[in-house]
Automatic annotation (TrEMBL):
GO terms for biological process: mRNA splicing, via spliceosome. It comes from Quillaja saponaria. One of its GO terms (cellular component) is spliceosomal complex. This is Protein BUD31-like 2. It is found in: Nucleus. Its main location: nucleus. Keywords: Nucleus.
């Protein structure tokens, strides 16, 4: 969640380019946080929040990689909490370009000390559809 904005923080040049999209994603995040979880499994209630956090981080990272925003604005977004710095750091490594969340690669959160089922490429799996228990991802392996 981004820090509380005050008048003392000055936004770098180019903030107007991404301001509207980030405001829309923040509104979606608030809606997902306040959404009742009636009839859902306990783990399913958090899936929309993980997906919106992924969208926000991916948007800022793609804008930076596409030279739409400056490095100064990119660092400002990371410092203010608009994007997940650790997730973006993983995206820069080979094999993690499409990683959905950091919990999918932490062995302590899974059986047998491995990674999540969404990290397995689709072709070695059977034809059944699987969803990540943590974030609801259907497959974020870079080999898909």
């Amino acid at each position: 969640m981004p820090k509380v904005k005050t008048n003392r923080i000055t936004c770098p040049a180019g903030w107007e380019v991404i301001k509207d999209t980030l405001a829309a994603l923040d509104a979606k995040m608030r809606e997902a946080e306040n959404d009742p979880d009636d009839g859902k499994r306990k783990c399913e209630a958090l899936w929309p929040i993980f997906q919106i956090a992924y969208q926000r981080s991916r948007y800022i990272y793609d804008c930076y990689k596409g030279n739409q925003i400056s490095k100064e604005l990119y660092e400002f977004c990371l410092e203010q909490g608009y994007a997940d710095r650790n997730l973006i750091a993983k995206w820069k490594k080979s094999g993690y370009e499409r990683l959905c969340c950091l919990r999918c690669i932490q062995p302590r959160d899974h059986n047998f000390g491995t990674t999540c089922v969404c990290r397995v490429p689709k072709h070695p799996r059977e034809e059944k559809i699987v969803e990540c228990v943590h974030c609801g991802c259907k497959g974020c392996a870079s080999g898909d």
